[in-house]
Amino acid sequence: MGILPVMEITDRLEAYPTSGDTKMTMVVTQPCIGCKDKACLPVCPVECFSTSEDEPMVYIDPDECIDCGACVPECPTEAIFYEDDVPDQWKGFIKTNAKISQECPSAHE
Ligand code: SF4
Ligand code: SF4
C-alpha cells in the first residue's frame, strides 16, 4: 500500500462519527504532507506524534498532547495550530488528527 493521496485522507473523515467529546489541543494540518524534516518530533516532551509508512504526514494524539506549544516554532511549514486557530480550509484535520492518531503507531520510534 503506497502513501495515501490528500483527498483520500479527507474522504476518510466521512467514515468517522462525530463524537463531540474528544479532548483537543494542537492539530497538524495540510502543510505537513510530504515533510521530510520532522523537526517537531524531538521537541515533544510527551512523544505524542503518530504516523506510519502509509501516511503522508504526522498526527497529534489529543489525549496525550499537553498543549505546551514546543512543536509549533520548530515546524518549517507552519503546519501546527491550536485547535481554535486552525484555518477554515483545514478544519477537517482536527478530526483527522484525533482519529488517525489512534490508528497509527508512534512517530518517535
Ligand atoms: S508537523 Fe511540521 S515538522 Fe512535523 S512532520 Fe509535519 S511539517 Fe514536518
Ligand atoms: S504542543 Fe507540546 S505536547 Fe503537544 S504535540 Fe506539540 S510538543 Fe507535543
Q: Per CATH, which architecture? A: 2-Layer Sandwich
What structural category characterises the helix and strand content?
alpha+beta
Bound molecules: iron/sulfur cluster
Radius of gyration: 13 Å
Helical content, roughly?
10-25%
State the end-to-end distance.
21 Å
Q: How would the global form be characterised?
A: globular
Strand content: 5-15%
Highest-level CATH class: Alpha Beta
Number of helices: 2
User: Main β-sheet: number of strands, strand sense, barrel status?
Assistant: 2 strands, antiparallel
Secondary-structure element series? HEEEEH
The residue-averaged pLDDT reads 87
Total number of strands = 4
Strand order of the largest sheet: 1-4
Oligomer status: single chain
> Runs with pLDDT <50, length 5+?
16-20
CATH fold description? Alpha-Beta Plaits
What does this structure look like?
The chain is an alpha+beta fold and 109 residues long. It has a single domain (24-103), classed as Alpha-Beta Plaits. Helices cover 17% and strands 9% of the residues. It contains 2 helices and 4 strands. It has a two-stranded antiparallel ribbon with strand order 1-4. One iron/sulfur cluster binds next to loops. The site of one iron/sulfur cluster has 13 residues, from loops. Residues 23-54, 56-85 form the 4Fe-4S ferredoxin-type domain. This is Ferredoxin. Keywords: 4Fe-4S, Electron transport, Iron, Iron-sulfur, Metal-binding, Transport.
